[in-house]
């Protein structure tokens, strides 16, 4: 029985796991230059040697992005223990380009530049500049609500606008006196429309966002013992639309209840229970600011996407400084030979950017019409 043990190889699983490289986080992107080498056995194997040299360079690039080392031990038939290491790259090569190739009598050498990392972002990674147009809000007030509620509704809408305006990374345009009619804006051709030609229409540009809020205020009455409590229920609802298509990007809602009056059979106690307007309004204004903060937090974290157009041998997108794009900003699109094609902004205007790919052998025409996403904090 004991002899049978020595005829089997025992794997002592996962003795240790070490991550090499502190240079990369799992959701970052970095550029690495590596050199791969392969022996040329004879003239007939030159192509194979070139491929092995390229594979060697790519493997070294992946190791630069971090590697997991798994160790295990194996018991041989002669009872000796053999230590083994398995090295696995922890990062992914997203794209690469060949910088140089060199061939000697004995070796093939290839130098590459690679984009190494992981594009699975966690949390908010964008936080780029966003252009936002705020349109006229909708206000609904319960007829049975106190007379001063009408001015309260104006205070709350103004508070939301002011809070959004004060947020960093938000370029705000205030159209609060203009009612947003999405159906009209998506069907009318400004080139043939009288109002558009004479006075113009307030439109949201491509890459920008449009915001429409609504506030409803209703009165709620509840009997608690001998006391009747009257409360206001305020509901904020905000919808944010994308670009010139006015498709819904996201919506946020928030509700709050505020007690404004309590009454019972005793007049003196009624006077003591009555709330002042300031005590009622203050928590509602806080709620309005919290609602605005939810909107801006969501908006600035929206990923910046566009569609590539190839014109006159240049790769262009209709996004620019207005949308937070900067010189040397990075963007990514799906690749064919590699998982992704990495591009860098070479020129940036107010509403347009020109990009160049990492892979200098890439055919520009294959990128025309592709979706592209800008990376990180642009």
Helical content class: 10-25%
Protein structure class: alpha+beta
The strand order across the widest sheet is: 13-19-16-17-18-15-14
Give the total of domains: 3
Share in β-strands: 35-45%
CA-atom Rg in angstroms: 32 Å
How many beta strands in the DSSP annotation? 19
- Uncertain runs: 1-27, 268-273
CATH topology term of the largest domain: Double Stranded RNA Binding Domain
CATH architecture of the largest domain: 2-Layer Sandwich
3D structure, described in words:
By secondary structure, the protein is an alpha+beta fold. It has three domains: 116 residues, no CATH class; 168 residues, 2-Layer Sandwich (Double Stranded RNA Binding Domain), CATH 3.30.160; 70 residues, Thrombin, subunit H. Helices cover 22% and strands 41% of the residues. The protein contains seven helices and 19 strands. The strands form four sheets. Strands 13-19-16-17-18-15-14 form a seven-stranded antiparallel sheet, with no helix packed on it. Strands 7, 8, 9, 10, 11 and 12 form a six-stranded mixed sheet that branches. The chain has a three-stranded antiparallel sheet with strand order 1-3-4. A hairpin with a 5-residue loop joins strand 3 and strand 4. Helix 3 runs parallel beside helix 7. The radius of gyration is 32 Å and the shape is elongated. The termini are far apart. 25% of the residues are buried.
């Amino acid at each position: 029985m004991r002899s049978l043990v020595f005829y089997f190889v025992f794997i002592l699983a996962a003795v240790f796991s070490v991550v090499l490289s502190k240079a990369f986080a799992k959701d970052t992107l970095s550029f690495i230059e590596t050199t791969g080498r392969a022996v040329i056995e004879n003239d007939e194997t030159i192509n194979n040697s070139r491929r092995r040299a390229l594979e060697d360079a790519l493997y070294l690039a992946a190791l630069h992005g971090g590697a997991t080392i798994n160790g295990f031990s194996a018991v041989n038939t002669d009872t000796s223990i053999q230590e083994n290491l398995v090295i696995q790259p922890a990062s992914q090569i997203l794209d690469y380009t060949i910088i140089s190739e060199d061939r000697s009598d004995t070796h093939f050498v290839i130098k590459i530049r690679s984009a190494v990392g992981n594009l699975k972002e966690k949390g908010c990674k964008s936080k780029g500049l966003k252009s936002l147009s705020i349109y006229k809000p909708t206000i609904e007030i319960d007829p049975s609500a106190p007379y001063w509620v009408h001015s309260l509704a104006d205070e709350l809408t103004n508070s939301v606008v002011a809070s959004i305006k004060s947020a960093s990374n938000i370029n705000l345009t205030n159209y609060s006196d203009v009612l947003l009619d999405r159906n009209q804006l998506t069907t009318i051709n400004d080139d043939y429309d009288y109002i558009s030609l004479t006075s113009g229409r307030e439109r949201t540009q491509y890459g920008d966002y449009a915001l429409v809020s609504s506030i409803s205020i209703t009165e709620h009455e509840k009997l608690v013992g001998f006391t009747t409590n009257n409360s206001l229920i305020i509901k904020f609802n905000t919808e944010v639309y994308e670009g010139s298509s006015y498709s819904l990007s996201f919506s946020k809602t928030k509700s709050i209840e505020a007690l404004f009056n309590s009454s019972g059979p005793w007049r003196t106690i009624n006077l003591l229970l009555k709330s002042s307007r300031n005590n009622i309004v203050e928590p509602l204004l806080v709620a309005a600011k919290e609602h605005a903060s939810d909107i801006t937090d969501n908006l600035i974290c929206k990923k910046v996407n566009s569609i590539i157009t190839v014109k006159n041998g240049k790769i262009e997108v209709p996004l620019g400084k207005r949308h937070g794009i900067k010189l040397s900003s990075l963007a990514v699109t799906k690749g064919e030979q590699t998982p992704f094609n990495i591009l860098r902004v070479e020129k940036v205007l107010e509403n347009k950017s020109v990009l160049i790919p990492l892979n200098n052998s890439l055919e520009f025409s294959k990128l025309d019409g592709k979706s592209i996403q800008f990376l990180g904090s642009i």
